[in-house]
């Protein structure tokens, strides 16, 4: 059998027909699964289906049918693309149709794509086929299998060299889907940019050395957010919400008069209103850097006439921020929901209000403090347009006090020693948790 096969050379397929060629030309009997088909030349041609080196079936073509089979293989695309059904109208081809099953594997209308390579060059063409190893693009703005297959009118591009893919071909595009030579990213990117390629199930034998095992679109690729592009933009956001402290400052008021003294703890109001603005700039696909200004304001109790030992504080903070966009909102419009985490460091100026009372009268003093800050937040963002988005942010905020000073109060009592009230903030540090609603706009 091997000696007979070695003498046979059918046009376009040779002496051994691969699984891809068998599928493309419809040569396997009733679609039976085989490893390959041997072409045996012995008073005609016999196609022998092999699996695991064993004969599965054989299909015989007589000597006068061999030229018809060769013409079927040679003119296959022309007959498929003809406006007239040549498989029915051609009496010679009709004789062998019971043993071959022609099938249209060619998609006529497939939009062009552009591919950016690691050396910086951009190649544009019609995507013919894709595998995990290579992408085939036409060399021209269109693809004609009748001429381009025989004239090598296509590029065979290794996936390892592809950094990005876009559907924009008429001008430089900011909307490159990110591949970076990664196979899983390529699978996802090509499905998004070109869900249809010219050849989706099998390819002509002329391009089989470049792409025989076509991309299986049912195999998982990288998560969509890993390939979707983000524009190189600047973003301004405004936010507001509530904060509650879980670790509060330790503060005392010491009352001294006539050589005696007493002390009382100052209660710290846990709930705080919070608002601010944030400016960030694009660094990479997943990272931003920025600056944030925040005001934390406690509701004032100065208008409250009830007797109280209390400590109020408003803080004015300036932070540097670094954001990791775990699920970025892309600039193409495929993904409108984003998840991000921001770490911020900076400092705060704290405006203190300390209150105490004596003989049914409240006294208020003011002071200030300086803290070092660190904050961590997680945000959910929904893009309403490509420029405007809204979202919610949960965060934890720590403030480490490094300096504080609050003025003392001296109250003169007729016919008695002066009463002096001194305020001491021993533990200035605060840990807070809270939530913000925010709106952002791309500048």
Structural class: mainly beta
Low-confidence stretches: 1-7
Number of helices: 8
Beta content comes to over 45%
Outline, from the CA principal axes? rod-shaped
Tally of DSSP β-strands: 23
* End-to-end distance: 73 Å
- Fraction of residues in helix: 10-25%
Cross-sheet strand order for the largest sheet? 12-15-16-17-18-19-20-23
Mean of all residue-level pLDDT scores: 87
Major beta sheet summary: 8 strands, antiparallel, barrel
Radius of gyration: 38 Å
What does this structure look like?
The chain has 443 residues and is mainly beta. It contains eight helices and 23 strands. Strands 12-15-16-17-18-19-20-23 form an eight-stranded antiparallel β-barrel. A four-stranded antiparallel beta sheet has the order 1-2-3-4. The longest helix has 11 residues, at 183-193. The two termini are 73 Å apart. Residues 1-7 have low confidence and may be disordered.
């Amino acid at each position: 059998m091997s000696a007979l096969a070695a003498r046979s050379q059918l046009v376009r397929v040779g002496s051994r027909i691969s699984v891809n060629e068998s599928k493309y030309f419809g040569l396997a009997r009733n679609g039976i699964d085989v490893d390959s088909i041997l072409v045996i030349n012995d008073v005609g041609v016999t196609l022998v289906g092999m699996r695991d080196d064993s004969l599965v079936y054989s299909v015989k073509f007589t000597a006068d049918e061999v030229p018809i089979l060769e013409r079927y293989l040679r003119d296959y695309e022309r007959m498929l693309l003809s406006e007239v059904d040549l498989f029915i109208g051609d009496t010679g081809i009709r004789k062998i149709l019971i043993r071959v099953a022609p099938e249209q594997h060619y998609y006529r209308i497939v939009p062009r794509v552009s591919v950016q390579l690691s050396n910086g060059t951009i190649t544009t063409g019609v995507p013919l086929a894709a595998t995990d190893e290579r992408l085939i693009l036409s060399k021209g703005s269109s693809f004609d299998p009748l001429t381009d297959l025989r004239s090598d009118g296509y590029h065979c591009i290794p996936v390892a060299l592809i950094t990005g893919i876009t559907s924009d071909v008429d001008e430089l595009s900011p909307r490159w889907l990110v591949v970076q030579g990664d196979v899983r990213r390529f699978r996802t990117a090509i499905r998004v940019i070109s869900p249809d390629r010219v050849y989706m199930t099998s390819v002509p034998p002329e391009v089989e050395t470049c792409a025989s095992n076509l991309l299986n679109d049912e195999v998982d690729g990288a998560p969509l957010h890993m390939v979707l592009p983000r524009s190189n933009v600047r973003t301004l956001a405004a936010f507001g919400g509530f904060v509650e402290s879980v670790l509060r400052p330790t503060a005392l008021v010491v009352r001294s008069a006539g050589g005696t003294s007493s002390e009382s703890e100052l209660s710290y109001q846990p709930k705080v209103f919070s608002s601010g603005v944030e400016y960030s700039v694009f660094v990479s696909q997943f990272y931003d850097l920025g600056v944030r200004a925040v005001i934390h304001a406690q509701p004032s109790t100065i208008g409250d006439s009830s007797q109280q030992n209390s400590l109020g504080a408003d803080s004015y903070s300036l932070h540097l921020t670094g954001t990791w966009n775990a699920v970025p909102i892309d600039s193409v419009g495929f993904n409108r929901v984003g998840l991000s985490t921001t770490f911020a460091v900076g400092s705060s100026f704290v405006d203190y209000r300390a209150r105490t009372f004596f003989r049914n009268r409240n006294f208020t003093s003011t002071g200030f403090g300086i803290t070092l800050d660190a904050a961590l937040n997680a945000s959910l963002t929904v893009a309403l347009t490509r420029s405007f988005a809204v979202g919610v942010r949960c965060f934890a905020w720590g403030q480490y006090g490094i300096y504080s000073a609050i003025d003392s109060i001296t109250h003169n009592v007729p016919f008695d020693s002066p009463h002096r009230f001194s305020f001491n903030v021993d533990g200035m540090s605060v840990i807070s948790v809270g939530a913000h609603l925010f709106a952002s706009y791309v500048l």
